[in-house]
Amino acid sequence: MKKHLSIVIVILFSSITTAQKVYELDTNVPDIEIHQKLKLGGTNSKGEKIRVNNYYMSVGNKPVIPIVGEFHFSRYPKKYWDESIRKIKAGGINVIATYVFWNVHEEKENIFDWKDDKDLRYFLQLCKKNNIEVIVRIGPFCHGEIRNGGLPDWLMGRALNIRSNDPLYLKYVERLYNEIGKQLKGFYYKDDGPIIGVQIENEYQHSAAPWGLTYPGQPLEMTASERDMSVTQEGVGISDAVNPFLKQGNDHMKILKSLSQSAGIDVPIYTATGWGNAAIIPDESIPVTAAYAYPFWTPKRDYSPFFLYKDMHRFPDYGPVRYTPTDYPAFSAELGSGIMSVYTRRPIAVHKSFDALINRCLGSGANGIGYYMYHGGSTPKGKSSYMSDEAYGLPKISYDFQAPIGEYGQVREGFQRLKLLHFFVQDYGHLLAPMTTVLPQDASSLTPQNITSLRYAVRKKGNSGFVFLNNFQDDTTMVEQKNIRLKIKTVQTNIIIPEKGSFNLESNENVIFPYNLDLNGFQLNYATAQLLAKDEEQSVPYYIFFTPAGIKSEFSFPSNITINNLQGTSINKNSQRTLVSCNEAINEFKLTASGKMIRILVISKELALKMYKISINGKKHFIFSDALVLENGESTQLLQDGSSDFTIKIYPKTSIVPKNTFGNLTKLDNQRVFSSYKVSLPQVIMNVNSKKISERKWSLNLPSELPKHVNDAYLTVNYTGDTAMGFIDGELVTDEFYKGIPWQIGLRKFLTGQPQEMVLYFRPMQKNASYLIDLQPYPESIPDFGNNKEFLNVNNFTINVQYTTNITF
Predict the structure, then answer these.
(1) Which end of the chain is more exposed for a tag (fewer CB within 10 A), N or C?
(2) How buried is 113 (Cβ within 10 angstroms: 0-12 exposed, 13-18 middle, 19+ buried)?
(3) Phi/psi zone of residue 655: left (φ > 0), alpha (ψ -120 to 50 degrees), beta?
(4) Average pLDDT, integer, range 255-262
(5) Helix (H), strand (E) at residue 480
(6) Which residues of 75-131 form beta strands (DSSP E)?
(7) Could you write out the DSSP letters of every residue in 278-310?
């Protein structure tokens, strides 16, 4: 009897959960009021102007949403900077932010070092060459998990008060800025250079780093003015403490800006980290915001609010703030695309959180997005000490950050997922930036713990806009949203998405749907597909969409449009509209009306994740490949991990047959939509010659060099333990804190052309380790200690080859 009853309950519950639900949103609200109050902007030699109003930035009177990726040049080998910049650009980033760490460049007082991996000027030359803009974060305090937050050790021993208006401190800062100014000269926007902005200071009167000069067990003393010590916290967070020195803080920021300008640092945009009540330069800087879903500075894992839609223009994250938010655009400049480990806390950054966070920020009104970090690296050693933040317990070398691009240039899942949004913002940011955020009535009542309610928002201007939906929450799992139907109320009409039926939104996924969108004169009523890219310069303009995971794409157009099915679609037409349903992984159709024509390509998300933008004879094209595709001057570089055989698909099709510099290139026939080719390179097998010295120590023989068609070789170390260190010639060159993720080491930077030995030293995990709380969601990462108090197991070592070749058109 009980068995039959349970079956009835399951059936009833199933019927309830699958019932269709219509989510309504009334967009009949005034568009945002734009005013030009801020004292920011600049002009280049071509007369193009950068301006910033209270809502967005514009270039040449066209609204833009800058996409900023943090990459620290001094944490990466100089000889690979060009490749890394091209990787960053391939990911859709158009601005690089980089710190100038004072102590890295002036470790010894009066001796500035701008050579080798510290060559800021050469880094800027490469950014200009690759046509990517730069924001230079000039300090004097930086943080960046570097020793003393970037302040030199010797500053502690001088008769001054740091981070204050102390005349001697300001004299040192002035000297620093003059030295930085020499490196930046000629690279400013006004000179047609890449530098569009600088950041003054960092988290001033909000946060600080611990001094590296400390004693074990001693409470950490922070690198803050003694006046501000009581309101200074560790890490990024909410700060609602009463600070009697707010005015002095803003005044100090003004003085720093004046000193920078006296040093010749003249840029259109000055930024300041404005979260958590930090100081800014009122009306003369953009107060940027942050969001870290997996902080290491909190005592435990907890749900963050950063996946809930809000009006960020009115209510910035980590509020309260000391400025009027609506006077400034919402620039989310430090979005935690990854996180560092400290010895006691090792959060694992889920890469599906990266694009979910960007979806949420864009849907919430953010008109600038930036990542800390976008590209990891290795903290350089100083002459007197390690330059990492040892007092906080960071790795001495590794600054991988679990970033979209790793410590050794590895491209990860987050890189591919973010790329889809970056391409969208690049091509449609001018439409999105002026759009107002509209939220459902229950938005303010949702909590991060609520894993069942639909999270959605709209950005709109007039009667058109974009619907944003997010179904991700950190440190938990959202339930799949089933049978969703949207009703968007506009002045002219109501938009029902979809017209009939419903769609599902998978757990951990997010989507953006357009409505009432003008496609070069063709009206798109709505689409259950996400915009990816476009090219309106072609004789027949084309638009690329992708089908989100678990959703069937359909497009609604007015009935007066003629649609020709090229591949994969079915068409349903009545007197009110024409509906196009996409049935395959690759779909293409043409629209014709009043003598005009456009083309639409709809691809699966799986294929979209493999898309890269290139130029062929001055025209935009896209390559789809498992390989990483990097533009390299007149050629295109292909980097492929693991497999020596891979394919490239080119859209739109081209009659130009590419030539490759190495290996074989074979054209694939019967490709209706793409020009497709198979690339075959000679296979390389690299084995690891290892020797066990003891339970904790192993030695490995490194290759002398790599074959010319191998770009890098990644040593993967599978182990379960506490920490690991790698030595060459007795010198520590790499380290890692165990997180249950295989440790990967790029070998090319260490190879000298001569045989070498790398010694790996492992320490066992302790049964009572504090960081086990971060591994709890991944029980396979926690060993069975049994009756033992510690555990160490070194499983194996493998080498994965990254192949490279270049093609030209």
Answers:
(1) N
(2) middle
(3) alpha
(4) 98
(5) none
(6) 95-99
(7) ----TTTSEEEEEE-SS-SSSSS----STTS--
How many Å apart are CA 572 and CA 563, to the nearest integer? 10
pLDDT at residue 19 tops 90 = no
Residue 12 has pLDDT above 80, yes or no: no
Residue 18 — very low, low, confident or very high, per pLDDT cuts 50/70/90? low
Task: Using DSSP, state whether 692 is helix, strand or coil.
Answer: strand
Buried b vs exposed e over 552-576: b needs ≥16 C-beta within 10 Å? ebbbbbeeebebeeeebbeeeeeee
What mean pLDDT comes out for the span 434-440? 98
Longest CA–CA span in the chain (Å) reads 87
Q: 799 has which bridge partners?
A: 715
**483 Cβ contact partners less than 8 Å away, ≥ 6 residues apart:** 18, 19, 20, 21, 502, 503, 504
Cβ atoms 687, 784 nearer than 8 A: no
CATH number at 20-27+455-600? 2.102.20.10
Crossing angle between the packed helical segments 167-184 and 246-262, to the nearest 10 degrees: 40
pLDDT above 70: residue 8: no
* Contact indicator for 443, 456 with CB cutoff of 8 Å: no
Show Cβ contacts of residue 499 under 8 Å, excluding neighbours closer than 6 positions. Answer: 554, 556, 577, 579
Burial 295-316 (b: 16+ CB within 10 A, else e): bbbbeebebbbbbbbbbbbeeb
With cut-offs at 50, 70 and 90, classify the pLDDT of residue 6.
very low
Q: Where are the beta strands (DSSP E) in 138-257?
A: 195-199, 207-208, 233-234
Q: Which of 650, 530, 524 is nearest to 579 (CA)?
A: 524
Query: Identity (one letter) of the amino acid at 618?
Result: G
Fold of 695-808: Jelly Rolls (2.60.120)
Give the SS3 label for residue 748.
helix
In this prediction, residue 7 carries a pLDDT of 34
CA atoms 342, 346, 352, 358: torsion sign: negative
DSSP string, 345-397: ------THHHHHHHHHHHHTT-SEEEES-SB-EEPPB-SSSB-B-GGGT--SS
**Mean of the per-residue pLDDT values for the chain?**
95
In sequence order, the β-bridge partners of residue 208 are 234
Is 13's pLDDT higher than 70?
Answer: no
Confidence of residue 481 (pLDDT cuts 50, 70, 90): very high
**Nearest partner of 637 among 706, 686, 707, 709, judged by Cα:** 709
**DSSP states along 509-572:** -EEEEEEEEEETTEEEEEESSEEEEEE-SSSS-EEEEEE-TT---EEEEETT-EEEEEESEEEE
Tell me which residue of 417, 373, 439 sits closest to 145, measured CA to CA: 373
Locate 208 and state its tokens.
Answer: 């600080």
Provide the percentage of residues in the chain whose pLDDT is more than 70.
Answer: 98
- Which contiguous run of DSSP H or E holds residue 767? none
CA 603 from chain center: how many Å?
Answer: 23
Q: Decide if domain 41-431 falls under CATH 3.20.20.80.
A: yes
CB atoms near residue 678 (< 10 Å): 13
673: pLDDT strictly greater than 80: yes
* Alpha helices per DSSP H over 163-293: 167-184, 246-262
Spatial distance between the Cα atoms of 777 and 624, rounded to a whole number of angstroms: 34
Q: Report residue 545 as tokens.
A: 């969409």
The residue ranges of every structural domain in the chain are 20-27+455-600, 41-431, 611-680, 695-808
Using one digit for the tens of pLDDT, what is the confidence trace for 709-742?
999 999 999 999 999 999 999 999 999 999 999 9
State percent of the chain over pLDDT 90: 95
- Residues 227-262: b if buried by 16+ CB within 10 A, e if exposed: bbeebbbbbbbebeeebebeebbbebbbbbbebbee
pLDDT at 10: 37
Would you say residue 161 has pLDDT above 70? yes
Structure tokens at 732: 């520590």
